[in-house]
Amino acid sequence: MRRLAGLAIAVAILGLAGFFLLTRPASLPPETLARLQAHPADPVAGQSVFWAAGCSSCHARPGLDAMSPMSERLRLTGGDEFATPFGTFRAPNISMDPEQGIGGWTLAQFARAVMLGVGPDGAHYYPAFPFTTYSRATPEDIADLWAFWQSLPADPTPSLAHEVGFPFSIRRGLGLWKLLNFNQDYVVPASDAPVLMRGRYLVEALGHCTECHTPRGILGGLALSNWLAGAPNPVGQGRIPALPPQGWSAEDIAAYLQSGFTPSFDVVGGSMADVVTNLSQIAAEDRAAIASYLVALRSSPNR
Amino acid sequence: MFHRAFLIASIAVGALSTPALAQTAGQMDPNITARQSLMRLQAYNIGVLGGMAQGRMAYDAEAAESAAQNLLHLTQINSRRMWAEGTDNSAMEGTRALPAIWATPDEFAAAGAALASAASAMAAVAGTDLASLQGAIRGLGGACGACHQAFRQPE
């Protein structure tokens, strides 16, 4: 009996040790750190990365619309709520405020947060933050982005806690989620067409279209075999359509991302309206590259 | 025995589903039909302006002017009756109008006023030249989009 109890304790200790080993927060590889530091960071290029990556879609104050001044989208107060099957996530303040925001971070801390989903204190972030997408970004783009970030305003709004039920409330456990779902490989194979490659980078590494347009499994991981094939709305009613929309040409998609007008001149609404506002700020060639990638993806999706 | 149960079940299902079917097949609430028609007329005229702005259609001052005037009139008609209480998407099929329209009527009215003002800005310049039209189209799209974001359920 005592031997059995001893065995049970030993198994429990081994299990805990295994859990802690498997869920260790990752660090950036030395090669990434070297590229971050070696790159002469350009805040102007970083501004394009900012709009392509859509940071303000979630981190600007709630309630902005297409009529709001763009400067409001540069004030990253946080506070928007995302009610998911796993709980309610609240976007944190990521403004330059050193206390409430991330103004006190180093470039390496910023890159680790964005590319690996790990905070400066070593805590895992919830994948409501699309670090699985951003992990494909180049260190040079991240360095440029951080250089642009330095010009953004500080805001003293305190971040609000997420409301997540057990067992998802144990952040350490997210290490297991990452083991299952964190895959830095591109989904669409490489091609030798530079426009398609640029589109792939914008969609798969920065734009995080997949976060809403691809269905998720029961643990919230993306079902990569149904890449951009349409999905239930992860944060509300209704359905997010498959990409590309039925019958849309590359020109239609690029025009929509610039103006919000569909081919029949309906106008974008919902959370996609913020995406269009962001993408209206990037270069026309980049919107065209996204469109090329999407029309090459599949010809006639089912919705 | 099985047949009878099946027959009863079919009749029950038929009886239950008839009102919903009737509503979608032709007996749509007239308020919903009217406001969706109004939206289509607006989109039709914005299509002329947007098509020129996007370079899909050659700029034609006269056509631009008349589309902009049509749009301006459409944004100025009194559509209050079409937005009847109880015709939101939680109460009826076939509409994406969110309850927020009735919960925050002042914001909804302000969104309508913003559209009328964007349409007026467009009407003032649409016939001038393509560059002026292109300058006004963003405000128009913004006014449409702001209202859709707050008051229309995404598909």
How are the SSEs ordered, and which strands pair?
The complex is a heterodimer of chains A (303) and B (155).
Chain A: H1 2-22, H2 30-38, H3 43-53, H4 55-59, E1 81-84, E2 87-90, H5 107-116, H6 131-134, H7 139-149, E3 163-164, H8 174-181, H9 194-207, H10 210-213, E4 231-232, E5 239-240, H11 250-259, H12 272-279, H13 284-297
Antiparallel strand pairs in A: 1-2, 2-3, 4-5
Helix pairs in contact in A: 2-7, 3-7, 5-7, 9-13, 11-12, 11-13
Chain B: H1 2-24, H2 30-53, H3 61-76, H4 100-103, H5 105-125, H6 130-151
Helix pairs in contact in B: 2-3, 2-6, 3-5, 5-6
Oligomer: heterodimer
The total count of helices of chain B amounts to: 6
* Largest beta-sheet details of chain B: none
- Give the N-terminus to C-terminus distance of chain B in angstroms: 44 Å
- Shape of chain B from CA axes? elongated
Total of domains of chain A: 2
Number of beta strands of chain A: 5
What is the radius of gyration of chain B computed over CA atoms, rounded to a whole number of angstroms? 21 Å
SS element count, helices of chain A: 13
Low-confidence stretches of chain B: 6-23
Question: Could you please describe the fold and organization of this structure?
Answer:
The complex is a heterodimer of chains A (303) and B (155). Chain A has helices at residues 2-22, 30-38, 43-53, 55-59, 107-116, 131-134, 139-149, 174-181, 194-207, 210-213, 250-259, 272-279, 284-297, and strands at 81-84, 87-90, 163-164, 231-232, 239-240. Chain A has 303 residues and is mainly alpha-helical. Chain A folds into two domains: 29-184, no CATH class; 187-303. In chain A, strand 1 (81-84) and strand 2 (87-90) form a beta hairpin. The longest helix of chain A has 21 residues, at 2-22. The mean pLDDT of chain A is 94. Chain B is 71% helix and 0% strand. Chain B is built from six helices and no strands. Chain B has helices spanning 2-24, 30-53, 61-76, 100-103, 105-125, 130-151. The N and C termini of chain B lie far apart (44 Å). Mean pLDDT of chain B is 88; it is low at 6-23. The chains are: A mainly alpha (303), B mainly alpha (155). The interface between A and B is medium-sized, with 26 and 26 residues.
